[in-house]
Amino acid sequence: MGTENNRSRREFLGKALGAIAVAALNPLAVLLTPRDVLAAGNGFIIDLNSQSYSQLNSVNGSYRIVIPNTKEVFDNGDVLPYAFIVTRTTSSAFSIVLGWCTHRHYELDHYNVQTDLIKCLNPDTGHDSTYSVDGIVLHGPSKTNLPQYEYSYHTINNTLEVFIPGLAVKDGEVRINALELFQNFPNPVKGVTTIPFKTHYYSKVTLTVSDALGHIIAVLHDGGLSAGDHSFEFDTSIFPSGTYFYHLSDGGETLTKQMVVVR
Ligand code: FES
To answer: pTM of the entire structure?
Structure first.
């Protein structure tokens, strides 16, 4: 397990440094900075008036954009910064797709109008996957299309709002919402209630319940959970009526909601 973690970490660092190197060498690769980021729910806004994105004011202009200090966790356990390729396909439409090859999560080039392709930049033999501008696999070992991201184009101020599930923006900084805690149901509760929550990447989480005085009265979960929707049941039947609180924590962030027990 430790070896596997070390391997993943090495691969992650290698890929992340590779991405940064590509960004430094390739004028069409951009590292998004907090200055570029404006609050926009589950995503962020790219200001197309900025010199940094000038190519996007022309049809077929394309950039690969990496969002530093973020982590996207893929199904196979790879952890990489969020990255996507944005291409202007018409005067009013864009294609926004994942910026990592779906074969082994190596970095992709931006869309190249000369070849009409997005290419995997993995130099190893046989890693020659290519994709269309909208992320369809055209060739190579990759079998999975690049996921597309939704967006809104605001013509009035020439900004592009990109929606990426799991990303959040606070105070001009891109952050990942690691956890989301939802209301228990039923609530008020007489017997058993269900507490739903979501983890946006693999996390070690604790789910506890406390009484109104802050004493922990139940630990419903303490351990690792993969990314996704989860729920745990809590049997209230041995507790008196009153207000209780449930807490979801990954060691850094703690979310709390309240429930009412009736007898
Ligand atoms: S990593 Fe892209 S084709 Fe293998």
So the answer is: 0.57
- Asked if 165 and 40 sit in the same domain, the reply is yes
- On whether both 8 and 54 belong to a single domain, the answer is yes
Report the relative pairing of strands 167-170 and 173-176 from DSSP bridges: antiparallel
Ligand 1 closest atom vs CA 101 = 2
Which residue has the CA at smallest separation from atom 1 of ligand 1?
104
Residues 159 and 74 in one domain: yes
Q: Which of 141, 156, 176 is the last residue of a domain?
A: 176
- Specify the 3-state DSSP secondary structure of 18: helix
User: Which of these three, 149, 176, 203, is where a domain ends?
Assistant: 176
Tokens of 206: 């604790």
Same-domain check for residues 131 and 162: yes
More confident of the two residues 27 and 215: 215
- Average pLDDT value over all residues in the chain: 80
DSSP-derived letter for residue 128 is: -
**Rounded CA gap, 97 and 226, in Å?**
24
Task: Calculate how far, in angstroms, residue 108's C-alpha sits from the geometric centre of ligand 1.
Answer: 9
Shortest-distance Cα residue to atom 3 of ligand 1: 127
Q: Please state the atom number of ligand 1 nearest to the C-alpha of residue 104.
A: 1
Mutating to test ligand 1, I would choose from 64, 121, 142 the residue with most ligand atoms within 8 A of its C-beta, which is 142
Same domain membership, residue 141 and residue 125: yes
Kindly state if the Cβ of 101 falls inside 6 Å of ligand 1: yes
Question: In which domain, by residue range, is 220 found?
Answer: 179-261
Give dist(CA 143, CA 102) in Å, integer: 8
